Amino acid sequence: MIDDFARRLAGLVGLTDPPRVAKDPITEQAIRIWCEAVGDENPAYQDPAWAAASRWGGIIAPATSLNMWTLPGNRRTHRQGESLDRVNAVLAERGYTSVAAVQTSHRYARPLRPGELLAQYPSITAVSSQKSTRLGRGHFVDLLSEYRTLAGESVGSVLLRMLRWDPRTRPPEPAGRATGGPPGHPWPVPPPVRRPRATATLLPAQLRPGGHLPPATIPVTQASIAALATATHDFNDVHLDRDAAQARGARDVYMNILGTAGLINCYLTDWAGPEAEIVAFDARLAVQNHPGDTLQLTGAVTSVNGPIVTVDVRGSNSLGDHVLATARVNLVVQ
């Protein structure tokens, strides 16, 4: 028999909201800050002269930045009573107060450009029954958002799955697992290890299924986690404040999903070239990325269909798989 709590959650599925308009247009400055946090030197994002002569005809924004432009910002000001707020309020009544983004699915109609002002059209598409996860017991919430210009042009969509979980139910860390140092510990930070960025874009004829991308090694520090979170307009305190993260059941601050997506965006275009266009991106997060660890990215081509190349990417750290992602990349150079 369905109890009242489950019935109330089910009643929230299908709710939609009026569009949330971004506070500001996309700017070259915000794109540059994103690039600095990610370590991305793609000239399509930062070199006006190069970009003007490229297939893009001018500066573009990184593909995986799509859903950052309408986030509420540091003051977290947005309309109260949005559908997601209502779901969260019901879940909080039962102690499901911690949140982690665990899965995302992006579709891009075209690259975004400086000066464009986006509107987000969100809807709640699913709320799961209680699940037991590695973080604890909680409910998955799916938020589907379409993004349009103010002229009404659809530029992409993002399905974001979040886990709202009860921090009191988090399982203890397995014995012997590295847990990092105390607050203020001066982590030894190894330099990133990345293949030099490709300056020419690959041709589909150069690729075969089963081919591997060069690996990349990226140190994870408290500073890099904070830089990625703020550069992607994500000011959730679990990415910035150790005390807040631990109060919500995390071991330490941890990397946000937009930060992870940005690192993979860079990994793909460093390999494929500056005129490669990411047209779809799907990612599932597993273990969290904490300070003092190292993210190892590896990739493999899984299919080549005309100009569209599909690539699987794995990101792992000392705890296991942090992210499993799949991207479709258009290698047409016009």
Automatic annotation (TrEMBL):
Biased composition (Pro residues): 183-193
Annotated MaoC-like domain residues: 216-304
Occurrences of domain FAS1-like dehydratase (ranges): 23-155
Region of interest (Disordered), residue spans: 170-196
Pfam families xref list: FAS1_DH_region, MaoC_dehydratas
Superkingdom of origin organism: Bacteria
SUPFAM superfamilies assigned: Thioesterase/thiol ester dehydrase-isomerase
Similarity comment: Belongs to the enoyl-CoA hydratase/isomerase family.
Name of protein: Acyl dehydratase
Organism from which the protein derives: Branchiibius hedensis
